[in-house]
Design a protein that fits this description.
263 residues; two-stranded antiparallel sheet; single chain
Length: 263
């Protein structure tokens, strides 16, 4: 999978891309990240990428010309390589607080593409014609303010890259992460079995994988009930699981699960 990132600050990506899972994925050719300096697509002597907003107001707005030229240049290079993604439109994603919230479902959607262009917003945002005529999607990583789209782009790359086949050491890892199935992850333990008098739950040492799976599922449900009950409305629950949650809620461990899907 290939990410094309248009940014004013390409050096911001050097560290995060060169460590851990992303480093190994890039070395193995599973993930390719290409950085494009937005100033390279200007034609004035000062390489100006922003200007004051029409109508007045504080801050500066990213100009449309360099953004259009950068993305159109990427499109041409992808076509020239004959990449399969261009059987359909090339996704162009603006990282922006006005976009839809990045969730695990959105990450899975993004992972279905061979190529994605990420445009890092900055300053007071981008010229509205970029939203209307250039980008195909807008993504936000949360309801708070950041200086630019560089950190959100890193988060998106990490979230999506983990879903590319072969990137994780075990293909079983991603499905068990928090939010992967709409629930928070169950508690995890490792050696030693007893630490400072605190012991690992006996079921995890039993070798009974059916009981371990049941314990993990219930713990995942219970943790979600306590911490993110809003997630349960969109989760497929069996009648037994709904009864389990209702009983735990009655014991004071959270609100009863909202009405949702039942298998």
């Amino acid at each position: 999978m290939r990410f094309h990132i248009v940014t004013l600050f390409p050096d911001a990506f050097r560290g995060p891309l060169d460590v851990s899972i992303l480093k190994r994925a890039r070395e193995r050719g599973l993930v390719d990240v290409r950085l494009y300096q937005l100033r390279d697509y200007t034609h004035d002597r000062h390489h100006v990428t922003d200007d004051a907003p029409f109508g007045g107001g504080p801050g500066m707005v990213l100009k449309p010309e360099p953004l259009f030229e950068a993305v159109e240049g990427i499109r041409r290079s992808v076509r020239a390589e004959g990449r399969p993604s261009l059987e359909g439109p090339l996704p162009v994603v603006l990282l922006d607080p006005q976009g839809r919230l990045l969730t695990q479902a959105v990450a899975r959607e993004m992972a279905s593409h061979e190529e994605i262009v990420l445009v890092c917003g900055h300053y007071e945002g981008v010229d509205e014609r970029v939203r209307e005529r250039l980008v195909t999607d807008e993504i936000s990583i949360g309801d708070y303010v950041l200086t630019g789209g560089e950190l959100p782009a890193m988060v998106l790359v990490e979230a999506v890259a983990r879903l590319v086949p072969g990137v994780l050491g075990s293909e079983d890892s991603a499905p068990h992460d928090s939010h992967a199935q709409g629930l928070l992850q169950y508690p995890q333990y490792t050696r030693p079995a007893t630490f400072q008098g605190w012991s690992v739950p006996e079921v995890l040492l039993s070798g009974d994988h059916k009981q371990i799976d049941l314990w993990r599922r219930r713990q995942s449900l219970l943790r979600t009930l306590r911490r993110r009950p809003d997630l349960l409305a969109a989760t497929d629950l069996t009648a037994a699981e709904r009864a389990f949650l209702k009983s735990r809620a009655a014991a004071g461990e959270g609100q009863p699960p909202p009405v949702g899907n039942v298998e």
